[in-house]
Amino acid sequence: MRDQFTADGGIVLDNALSYWVARVYLASRAAMYRRFRAHGVEITPEQWMVLVRLWEQEGVTQTHLAERTFRDVPTMSRILALMERDGLVERRLDPTDRRARLVYLTARGRTLRKALSGEAMALVDTLRTGIPEEDLLTTRRTLQRILANLEPEG
């Protein structure tokens, strides 16, 4: 990894890990959006993450969803407003805390699971083509360690 810097203090961007992480993220994000759109579903990858979290557990607060999708609360509120407009989710007042809203899937949000999950699996199959499983597991562990190194000490 030291090859991303030159002896005179320059940077070789094409050798920087974060450059490649960003490129893969952007390319996979665009591919996912295209796949979903081909099914007539206009959702962003951020909305996809919200759907996946709600398929795991619905009736959670916006704050909980924000934490579980690595977004701030105002951004999550905007994402949910668009999803509500498109009939994917509904927000209800929390009966135990009138300040909070609980988020639930609509019938449409539930029905998208099968088609979109299949598309996500197909995309992952494309991404992993020609890469041994052990390499993928090593990459995931390495990225998890890098993330842990970046987190502030608690």
UniProtKB/TrEMBL annotation:
Top-level taxon: Bacteria
Keyword line: DNA-binding, Transcription, Transcription regulation
A family per Pfam: MarR
InterPro entries assigned to the protein according to its UniProt record, in alphabetical order: HTH_MarR-typ, Tscrpt_reg_MarR-type_CS, WH-like_DNA-bd_sf, WH_DNA-bd_sf
Molecular-function GO term, any one: DNA-binding transcription factor activity
SMART domains with a match to the protein in the record: HTH_MARR (SM00347)
SUPFAM superfamilies cross-referenced by the UniProt entry: Winged helix' DNA-binding domain
Residue span, HTH marR-type domain: 14-148
Protein name, entry field: Transcriptional regulator, MarR family
Species per Swiss-Prot/TrEMBL record: Sorangium cellulosum (strain So ce56) (Polyangium cellulosum (strain So ce56))
